[in-house]
Amino acid sequence: MILAKIKKIVDQQFIYEGELNERTKVIDDLGADSLDIPVMVNAIEDEFAIAISNEELFKIRTIGDLMNIIQDKIPEGMNYGKC
Amino acid sequence: MGNVKSVDRILSKTAQILPDKTVMYYENESISYSQLDKEVNNLAQGLMDFGLKPNEKVALVLGNCPNFVRMYFAILRAAGTVVPLNPLYKADEIHYILNDAKVKLLIIDQELLPMIREVRAEKSDLNIIAIGGRKEEGIVSFEELLKKEAEPVDRNVEESDLAVCLYTSGTSGRPKGALLSHGNLIFITYALITRMDIREDDHNLCVIPLSHAFSQFTNMLMPIFIGGSFTILPRFIPNAVLSEIASKKISYFCAVPAMYSALLAALSQEHNYDMSSLRICLSGGAPLSVEIIKEFTKRYGIPLVEGSGPSEAVACIGSYQAIKPGSVGPALDGVNVKVVNDHDQELPQGEIGEFCVQGPNVMQGYLNLPEATAEALRGGWFHTGDLAKIDEEGYVYIVGRKKDMILVGGMNVYPGEVEQCLFNHPQVLEAAVIGSPDKERGEVPKAFIVLKRQESAEPKEFILYCRRHLANYKCPRQVVILASLPKNPTGKIDKKQLA
């Protein structure tokens, strides 16, 4: 579920090859530059109603990293499930 | 420090005067001048043990981190020449530069090793030092070099010796290596310090990639030369920048226009960052809109000055005491500037022509390109390719480009390089790349393609193809497939009709 929601956002912003999955690299595979990442993260914060810190932003390399951050932040009882 | 002939010796001098002062901060790390100088020495000895000879070129493929600074100075102390490469480059681009510069030693972030697997297979004489801690067959660990205690390295370096080889995108489709000596770097850095009135108590935030000449001068060399300090951020995240400015009490900040635009947008949200420590901001790499300057100055009362610095010859910078919006400022002290017509005749004040620069700031030439060097430096002046005018007070206004170039968020992209990449695609018959306006980045590449007969393809395929061979910022964001491209009477593609 988390991945499906991320995919919806990513598809609006990026052109990429193959299927989006946990191993998809944000810079190498999505072609993101430093101005794209904050835009994507803002959309994700709105979608999941969470706040991602600057420290966490610097650590995002893959879609899997992003999924882990979201998973840790979504309120208990709102288990989206990673897929 | 006027008698110091090499850049790394200036670090040693600063370390003697201010041994305990912190020179740089990164995440939870803080490094003093004496520690940096000692580490640079250990690494320089390590490079020499590794066989580095004076004047040999060493490629540095690292993102923004203290190890970039350590290795940059270590290469210089070992009398080598630094070839800083953008870590966003793809394997093809890195491979070309390693061959062009005859690089035998590459220093790279371990995370980027998979990307250069093919390069390693083809260049059996390439030695690699990887930063990242893990041990790997055939790769030397940076961390082990750093730990080795060494006697003071004392290789003789003269001002005329080459310090850096800065690769810039080339009109012909391949990057060119601009060669700058220690004398060039020392002159430019001190001239910038004087013009910007940078002081020992200044603390700057380094967010532009250190692989870029603008960042090396403003974020690394300036503070080290004056005994200041800096905080390094690995990449640009608007809220992180604002948070660091507030918490670290940043006093000067250098960025490209796209970053100022993003910062203003971030500041217009609910956040309330304390920016009162900032006393000067500098913009470079691309034209800064007068609206951004006005908005920034109105909101914060902080002077935002503009500079013009092609890698080949950093020439101008505004003085924050006397800013003229739209101008990149007067020439640095000791630098001559003029504008010329197509016959290289100097034009009077206010007239638009090609901007030319002369002085100790001008590069030594392009690596392996004697004809391009002679062309660029004809008549003893560096011809920048910028179109400019100069007012009665000597302020320079860049108004356009003579050469076909796209500025993507402060990074130069020559359409010829992107077109060359597209021509290599088996389905492409013709290709033309232009700059398309972009709110955040100023411009982005847009490609127009004609397919070979009976071929069919989706525009997306060409974007992905470019991304496999070129750094992301060079790749078209939009591709339009046409039946034919507009041509002028001589048969040349008429890009004006595509705009």
UniProtKB/TrEMBL annotation, chain A:
<keyword id="KW-0275">Fatty acid biosynthesis</keyword>
<dbReference type="InterPro" id="IPR036736">
    <property type="entry name" value="ACP-like_sf"/>
</dbReference>
<protein>
    <recommendedName>
        <fullName>Acyl carrier protein</fullName>
    </recommendedName>
</protein>
<dbReference type="Pfam" id="PF00550">
    <property type="entry name" value="PP-binding"/>
</dbReference>
<dbReference type="InterPro" id="IPR003231">
    <property type="entry name" value="ACP"/>
</dbReference>
<keyword id="KW-0963">Cytoplasm</keyword>
<keyword id="KW-0443">Lipid metabolism</keyword>
<keyword id="KW-0276">Fatty acid metabolism</keyword>
<comment type="pathway">
    <text>Lipid metabolism; fatty acid biosynthesis.</text>
</comment>
<keyword id="KW-0596">Phosphopantetheine</keyword>
<comment type="function">
    <text>Carrier of the growing fatty acid chain in fatty acid biosynthesis.</text>
</comment>
<keyword id="KW-0444">Lipid biosynthesis</keyword>
<feature type="modified residue" description="O-(pantetheine 4'-phosphoryl)serine">
    <location>
        <position position="34"/>
    </location>
</feature>
<dbReference type="InterPro" id="IPR009081">
    <property type="entry name" value="PP-bd_ACP"/>
</dbReference>
<feature type="domain" description="Carrier">
    <location>
        <begin position="1"/>
        <end position="74"/>
    </location>
</feature>
<comment type="similarity">
    <text>Belongs to the acyl carrier protein (ACP) family.</text>
</comment>
<dbReference type="GO" id="GO:0000036">
    <property type="term" value="F:acyl carrier activity"/>
</dbReference>
<dbReference type="GO" id="GO:0005737">
    <property type="term" value="C:cytoplasm"/>
</dbReference>
<keyword id="KW-0597">Phosphoprotein</keyword>
TrEMBL record, chain B:
<keyword id="KW-0436">Ligase</keyword>
<dbReference type="Pfam" id="PF13193">
    <property type="entry name" value="AMP-binding_C"/>
</dbReference>
<dbReference type="InterPro" id="IPR045851">
    <property type="entry name" value="AMP-bd_C_sf"/>
</dbReference>
<dbReference type="InterPro" id="IPR025110">
    <property type="entry name" value="AMP-bd_C"/>
</dbReference>
<protein>
    <submittedName>
        <fullName>Acyl-CoA synthetase (AMP-forming)/AMP-acid ligase II</fullName>
    </submittedName>
</protein>
<comment type="similarity">
    <text>Belongs to the ATP-dependent AMP-binding enzyme family.</text>
</comment>
<feature type="domain" description="AMP-dependent synthetase/ligase">
    <location>
        <begin position="13"/>
        <end position="367"/>
    </location>
</feature>
<dbReference type="InterPro" id="IPR042099">
    <property type="entry name" value="ANL_N_sf"/>
</dbReference>
<dbReference type="Pfam" id="PF00501">
    <property type="entry name" value="AMP-binding"/>
</dbReference>
<feature type="domain" description="AMP-binding enzyme C-terminal">
    <location>
        <begin position="417"/>
        <end position="492"/>
    </location>
</feature>
<dbReference type="GO" id="GO:0016877">
    <property type="term" value="F:ligase activity, forming carbon-sulfur bonds"/>
</dbReference>
<dbReference type="InterPro" id="IPR050237">
    <property type="entry name" value="ATP-dep_AMP-bd_enzyme"/>
</dbReference>
<dbReference type="InterPro" id="IPR000873">
    <property type="entry name" value="AMP-dep_synth/lig_dom"/>
</dbReference>
